[in-house]
Automatic annotation (TrEMBL), chains A, B:
This is Histidinol-phosphate aminotransferase. It comes from Clostridium pasteurianum BC1. The keyword NAD does not apply. Residues 25-347 form the Aminotransferase class I/classII large domain. The gene is hisC. It is an enzyme of class 2 (transferase). SUPFAM superfamilies: PLP-dependent transferases.
Amino acid sequence: MSKYWSEITKNIEPYVCGEQPKDKKYIKLNTNENPYPPSPKVIEAIKNAANEDLRLYPDPNCDELRETIAKYYKLDKKQVFIGNGSDEVLAFSFLTFFNQDEDIIFPDISYSFYPVYAKLYKLDYRLAKLKEDFSINVEDFLCENGGVIIPNPNAPTGRTLDIEAIKRILEYNSNKVVIIDEAYVDFGGESVVKLIKDYSNLLVVQTLSKSRSLAGIRIGFALGQEELIDGLNRIKNSMNSYTVDRIAAKAAVAAIEDETYFKECASKIVNTRERVVEGLKKIGFEVIPSKANFIFASHPEINGEKLFLILRENGLLVRYFNKPRINNYLRITIGSEEEMGIFLEKLKMIVAEIISKDK
Amino acid sequence: MSKYWSEITKNIEPYVCGEQPKDKKYIKLNTNENPYPPSPKVIEAIKNAANEDLRLYPDPNCDELRETIAKYYKLDKKQVFIGNGSDEVLAFSFLTFFNQDEDIIFPDISYSFYPVYAKLYKLDYRLAKLKEDFSINVEDFLCENGGVIIPNPNAPTGRTLDIEAIKRILEYNSNKVVIIDEAYVDFGGESVVKLIKDYSNLLVVQTLSKSRSLAGIRIGFALGQEELIDGLNRIKNSMNSYTVDRIAAKAAVAAIEDETYFKECASKIVNTRERVVEGLKKIGFEVIPSKANFIFASHPEINGEKLFLILRENGLLVRYFNKPRINNYLRITIGSEEEMGIFLEKLKMIVAEIISKDK
């Protein structure tokens, strides 16, 4: 604690992101990255953009990228906001739409960055307690509040909320913004982008980090009616006019345009996921049904933290959250078919060994 | 104004950045960009980084870049903070070090983003009125306050504050953070990085956008003792863990390492600046002494706004601020030798025409 820190700096609890290890080679299944490289067209676009124009500021409005995303989703360019990763888009959204002294609501088990944003902006929040099977109780969101945010599919559970439930939440909260965080929607979830025309309070947030294999390039975006996007621009332009660099914008355009490649990769991940789920069940894991590029699983006879550490020693990196209700679970990103084959084989041996020792 | 906007969103006054025109070809002297392209080594580094690793998140701590900058400035890696452009670094700094209900101080004529940040975070501020010649009155900063920020060289004036004056400000305000914004220091100013070891309240902010020709890549950084950098990291990690993408980090490392190229470009700009100053004086302009890559000038017989508009029509884009005390001035970025030759020639004719018409 430094005397130079502001009261806010002293009181916040920063987010701790998944480890980016440098000590040795892991099968890295801890930060929901895509196992497949970005489209070759993305690589080409970056190389083409590596030129003398880098001396100039980027387009602060990201017009070309906004047009590309708008076309992809059949929206207007004015309904698209671009940010430096969806974390930045979410950070801006909390400040743009939520007020102090009005509780916002999100699930008790969800993206652990939400309470961090709330604390940063001194926003009060209520946690909607998920059911025992980690599904959302819609009624929890049908009450007075200062705004709602729900990841769909939820993280780290992978569970989805159906579109009719989201409509009910949007309708009940018509004077408050409802943010649907669709970071993982491309792996089998159903997007609510199509509801934007009917709901002026709906903001959909997506990212290129997962399904477009571009975690390293930092592009996220928000979709909503123009007045919501205008609000986001007001906040952005009060912090940093140029959040997206020239290279990243070009890479993102190429990634969105190469729909075939994107669909192939997403489909491979979905197929692998289903096989991994079966494999895990066979060795005694309980697996939450997932529509994301990760699965959330626990073994009734094995301590989650212990298993996490043993896997780590064996070069298998997954994510473990030491939090109430989920402290026996592991979040396992879906890697390539080959990686998951090795993972399952090693895991099977480790599980057998632990169980035999414990007996 | 939307009912969905938070109170903060409703009340802020976003920054308006210099135009990035798309309508026609200009000699673009309005946003202090470098006329020379980035180092060829930067282009090469970007092309090498355009690979399949982009599927992975970047290093959230930017270790390689921090080490490179630390080495360049003979600091420790722990004394370096990296951000997505110096605007982001400044936005984080205001939140990290300044408190509501304590006036911060900055010059009345300085970077127009400062009051925007203050408004965003509901910080009170006092403006230190520059003298008639736009120099800083040091006494204005020797009083009770919640923190200080001074650009050195100042923008848009180009004037510098000498190091002894900065020491007095640091010593008087030993319990408050003093930010020296050195965005333009590489064009003849004297950096106060060397004071960091002696002043725990000093934060120096720099950028790669100007002297390293990388406005398009978005890298800024802050230098200071470890407790200040730790505070910045707390705020960053409460908003966005990965603000700097893989490509930008690699480009920045190459840019810092190619010191020879950087010095050549900066030196060419300084030489051109001195010739432009002479040229402007010859046609009747009053020019504020500049150590930046721009000059601030006014013509006693010609209205600044009118001249700005006529220049624009003639394909010469400079920056005009319609603000008290400086509304007869133009801020002119130093372009290449060739650009500035054309600029001076056209300006000379325009000035002659205006004056002859007005007679």
